[in-house]
Design a protein that fits this description.
Mean pLDDT: 90
Strand content: 15-25%
Largest sheet: 6 strands, mixed
Number of helices: 12
Helix content: 25-40%
Structural class: alpha/beta
Low-confidence stretches: 1-24
Radius of gyration: 22 Å
């Protein structure tokens, strides 16, 4: 179990630091005759974010035990390179998203194995404790303007610094597929018009289909969608079995607006969310727990954001500062790992009052963003 860890740490002392963004991630391949598995890109971590993680490139190893795999390689995803593999520094398990053998087109997904020995490491780099270790691999289509691609890189690196996501066995990397929605999606598994963290039961990816009109009219949403979907990855990394709509979308859309407010000096809260607010939010807030029951009354997630902002306001009434209240709602609640079946228990544990008590308080508010929008001085780095 410690073999890879020792070799990788030694390599970190003498190998030149590689530029991670320049690495071309490819499939893991196994040479059956030589018994060598080649891993182009791997993150090694204990999953906590509290200790150093390691990135290794062009790693060659022998395998120990094959513990499990899901199925034959998905033909639909065959042309898409793997984002990363993961080595658990605690259990010594290796998690391989896609493996092919001897150059044959068929292979296997989500292979879990142990490492026999480390034959070679092409390069490695340490990630300091507290820094983001979750690995995003962008696939930015040629249909996108260069200026958008450049801004995407800035937004992603800023979010990774201010709202770090930590790689762990169940959630360690993701491809990001972005394209101008005036053209067909670049891969068959991507849905037209999608802006989501999507999956097929075996793999998960981020889709950013940017409407061409947003480029033509300079819509802020062409950029704000990036922090929105990024925060969904933050949420699901910590609470994969949780999906209460107003907390999920309200949190993501609040992060979206806070990022825009801080980095573009623009109020997405006031200009793009508040005008869509439906008065139903102060009559039946429980409708916003489900995507189905709030679909027609939660345009641009205006109601979900409103409920989120009222929750922050109610926490401030208990004596917490604005930043402390934001931290509880946007970070601590997810750190607690809520699950769908008992989310109300987590809610009361973290916030100090029940969902029912909160809804009663919410119904006394006017359906308006006025006085609820966070201060312009709030920074994401202060919250996380």
């Amino acid at each position: 179990m410690n073999n890879f860890r020792k070799v990788a740490k030694i390599c970190c002392l003498w190998l030149a630091v590689i530029t991670i963004s320049s690495v071309s991630h490819a499939k893991e391949t196994y040479d059956t005759a030589a018994g060598i598995l080649t891993i182009p890109y791997l993150i090694a971590s204990d999953g906590t974010g509290m200790t150093e993680s390691i990135i290794a490139t062009n790693l060659k190893i022998t395998l120990g035990d094959i513990k499990s795999y899901d199925r034959s390689y998905s033909k639909d995803l065959f042309t898409v390179p793997s984002h990363t593999a993961y080595y658990d520094l605690i259990t010594g398990e290796l998690n391989l998203p896609f493996v092919t053998a001897d150059g044959i087109a068929d292979g296997y997904e989500n292979v879990v194995a142990t490492v026999g020995s480390v034959v070679d490491i092409g390069g490695s780099e340490n990630i300091l404790a507290g820094d983001a270790s979750f690995q995003f691999t962008p696939f930015l289509d040629k249909s996108l303007p260069l200026v958008w691609k450049e801004e995407f890189a800035i937004v992603l690196s800023t979010l990774e610094k201010d709202v770090p996501i930590f790689a762990k066995k169940s959630s360690f990397g993701m491809g990001v597929f972005a394209w101008n929605n005036d053209v067909a999606p670049p891969h068959s598994f991507l849905g037209a018009g999608e802006a989501c963290v999507c999956g097929n039961g075996y793999n998960t990816w981020m889709s950013l289909a940017i409407p061409n009109a947003e480029f033509e009219w300079g819509s802020m949403h062409r950029y704000s969608v990036i922090p929105h979907e990024y925060f969904h990855v933050f949420q699901t990394n910590l609470a994969p079995d949780f999906n209460i709509k107003w907390l999920m979308e309200g949190g993501a859309a609040t992060i979206e607006s806070l990022y825009v407010q801080e980095n573009y000096d623009y109020s997405y809260f006031a200009n793009d969310q508040a005008p869509n607010l439906d008065s139903a939010v102060v009559v039946s807030p429980e409708f916003y727990e489900s995507y189905d029951t709030s679909n027609t009354i939660d345009s641009n997630y205006s109601g979900s954001v409103f409920i989120t902002l009222v929750l922050i306001e109610e926490l401030k009434k208990t004596g917490l500062s604005e930043v402390e209240s934001l931290t509880k709602v946007l970070s601590e609640f997810y750190q607690d790992g809520p699950v769908q079946k008992n989310w109300k228990t987590s809610f009361e544990l973290v916030f100090g009052f029940s969902v029912e008590t909160f809804y009663t308080a919410l119904k006394s508010y006017e359906a308006s963003y006025e006085s609820l929008i966070p201060s312009a001085t709030v920074k994401l780095s202060d919250i996380f």
